C-alpha cells in the first residue's frame, strides 16, 4: 500500500479539492492553471448536477464547479479513460452551464449577461494531441486568419499529464509543481524539499492513507480496485490485439511479396538493404492500420503495441483518413 493516495481518483479529487475546508487548495490549483491571468477570491462551490429541461436531454454531472467573486464560473473535470469526443464533451458541458444562466422570465432585461465560463480538463492515461504541442493547451475563440482573440468569455484549458515529463530539477512555477503532485503523489513516500510550501504540506497531509477514516479507506480501495481491473482488461486486450495485428500484417506482407515475386519483381542485390527497411515499414504500417481501423485504442497504446513513434501513428491515421 502506497503512503499517499492517488489524487485523480473520483473520491480523493472531490475530497481534497471539492470540500469547504479545503477551498484554498482548489483556489491555489486554479491560480496556477491560469498562470496569474485570473485572481480568484471568495470561491463558492456550485451544484455539480444539471438536470435537462426534458427527459431526452438527460442530466449532466460535473466533477467540480465553482464561482469566483467576480461572477466567473469554473468547471473542473478529471478524465482518465480515453474519449475521442472529449473536446465536444467539454463544449457540451460549457453550453449547459451557459444555458443555465438564462432566467426563465424577463430575458430582455437580462440581455445575455453571460459570465465568463472556464473549463479545466485534467487528462491522465491518454493524450488528445501530439507531443510537439506541449502538455498545456489554453484555448479560446480567436480569428483564424490573424490569430487575435475574438472572445475571452469562454475558455478551455487541457492539461495532459502523459505529456508532462519534467523532472523535479526542471520544475518552473506553481503549475509545474501542481502537475507533478497530481501525477506522482501516490508514488512518493515523503514531502520533497522542492514542494516545501504550506499548500502542498496540506495536500500531503490530507492524502496520507492512514489519515483517512475507515470508511474513506474502503471507498478509496474500492475505486482503485475497479480501476486496476479495468487496466488489466485493457492490458489483456492490447496483448491479444498486438498478436493478432502482427500475425495479420505478416500474412498480408508475405502474400504481397509472393505476388510480386511471381510477377518477376525481385529486388536486385544492391537494393536488398533498402528493401529490408521498406519491408519493416510495411509491417509496421499494416499493424498500425489494423489497430486504427479495428480497435478502440489510443494513439499512445498503438505506439506501445506496434513499437513506433507517435508521429508515425499520426501519419498513418492521416493517410487512412484520406483513403
Overview of this structure, please?
The protein is α/β, with parallel strands linked by helices and 323 residues long. It contains 10 helices and 8 strands. The protein has a 6-stranded mixed sheet with strand order 1-4-5-6-8-7, sandwiched between helices. Helix 2 (23-33) packs across helix 5, helix 8 packs across helix 10 (310-322) and helix 9 packs across helix 10 (310-322). The longest helix has 49 residues, at 214-262. The protein is globular and about 75 Å long. The termini are far apart. The model has no long low-confidence stretch (mean pLDDT 84).
What tags apply to this protein structure?
323 residues, alpha/beta, 6-stranded mixed beta sheet, 10 helices, 8 strands, 47% helix
Q: In a nutshell, what does this entry contain?
A:
The protein is an alpha/beta fold and 323 residues long. The chain has 10 helices and 8 strands.
Strand order of the largest sheet: 1-4-5-6-8-7
The number of helical segments is: 10
- How would you sum up the global shape? globular
Largest sheet: 6 strands, mixed
For the secondary structure, the number of strands is 8
Tell me the series of helices and strands, N- to C-terminal.
HHEEEEEHHEEEHHHHHH
Structural class: alpha/beta
Name the poorly predicted regions: none
Please indicate the percent range of residues in DSSP E strands (runs of 2 or more): 5-15%
Please estimate the helix content: 40-55%
Rg computed from alpha carbons, rounded to a whole number of angstroms:
24 Å
**For the residues shown, what is the average pLDDT?**
84
What is the distance, rounded to the nearest whole angstrom, between the alpha carbons of the first and last residues? Answer: 49 Å
